[in-house]
Amino acid sequence: MNKEVILYMVIPCYNEEEVLLETTKRLKEKYKNLISNKLISKESKILYVDDGSKDKTWSLIESIHKNNNTFLGIKLSRNKGHQNALVAGLLTAKSYADVIISMDADLQDDIHAIDKMLEEYYKGNEIVYGVRNSRKKDSWFKKTTAQSFYKLMKIMGVDVIYNHADFRLTSRKVLDCFENYKEVNLFLRGIFPLIGYKSSVVYYERDKRFAGESKYPFKKMLSFACDGITSFSIKPLRMVLILGMIILLISIVIMIYSLVVKIMGKVVPGWTFITISIWFIGGLQMLSIGVIGEYIGKIYHETKQRPRYFIEKELLK
Fold it and tell me: Residue 46: how many CB atoms within 10 A of its CB?
């Protein structure tokens, strides 16, 4: 296999003006080393995807591209979210590259793991997942919620790589297959394991964010987790069905008990029991309707088949 493959890196950016110059500096040096070691071709590029930023991110991308055409850019017409921005970059890059690596702009992913990813690719792996080897630098809350998320996904039957985000290498062959997934509700961590092909894992130490604030507050993380579960598993619906059957059996037992008590002439005041039962069953009904409604909402979005994104500007030459 010719080791000098064309590598494109895809980096979604949303309000990253504080970190973008440092990211560019580090990636420029990394590419220089990779090319000198003949791991990648001189035609390799880095593609920034501006996800409708409100700061000077796009202006910086234009300036960086003007000074060094190794760095390319596309600007989405509006903010469409991290997953859509990533897809826009991946599907743009696959027309030019042999191999594509996606990572975030905040420098938390270790760029030195790129060398190991390429080595795994040369061994015949079409997908290489970047997996953090520990969560020592996370707060207790972040660590607990993240680990709970991955465990819950496994319980729900979703095939995800534990502690893997969106730092991964994929070949053009894999992205050709990925393009056939037309769903609007994207959860890329669940889609790529479904594609198949030989894959491997590279472990790395995840660093703290270089500058700026996280673009994934708790509310977005919760929404992301909900999208991941409902996009890949119908187990919550089955749980609602099982819960309904359990409540039905309990109500039958209570009905029989009530009839027996009445026949025996033992009248027992049951105001507290009835009140608790009404509130409990009412709450379960609302929860069940909410779960079903979440799936109906997903169906609603999918049936409309609206475009995932529009590219407003391109800097690809």
Answer: 24
Region 163-189: mean pLDDT is 85
Task: Say which CATH architecture domain 7-218+308-315 belongs to.
Answer: Alpha-Beta Complex (3.90)
Q: What is the pLDDT of residue 1?
A: 47
Please tell me the predicted confidence (pLDDT) of residue 92.
92
pLDDT tens-place string over residues 183-216? 777 778 878 888 888 888 888 887 765 555 555 5
Q: Where are the domains of the chain?
A: 7-218+308-315, 235-304
Count of alpha carbons within 13 angstroms of residue 233, beta-carbon side: 20
The residue among 151, 157, 304, 306 whose CA lies nearest residue 230 is 157
Question: Please, where are the H alpha helices in 160-234?
Answer: 172-178, 188-195, 218-232
Report residue 213: phi and psi, to 5°. -110, 155
Which sign does the torsion angle of CA 138, 14, 106, 308 carry?
A: positive
Among 64-68, 75-79, 249-253, name the one with the lowest average pLDDT.
249-253
Task: Enter the pTM of the model.
Answer: 0.72
In angstroms, the first-to-last Cα distance of the chain is: 27
Displacement of CA 77 from its chain's centroid (Å):
21
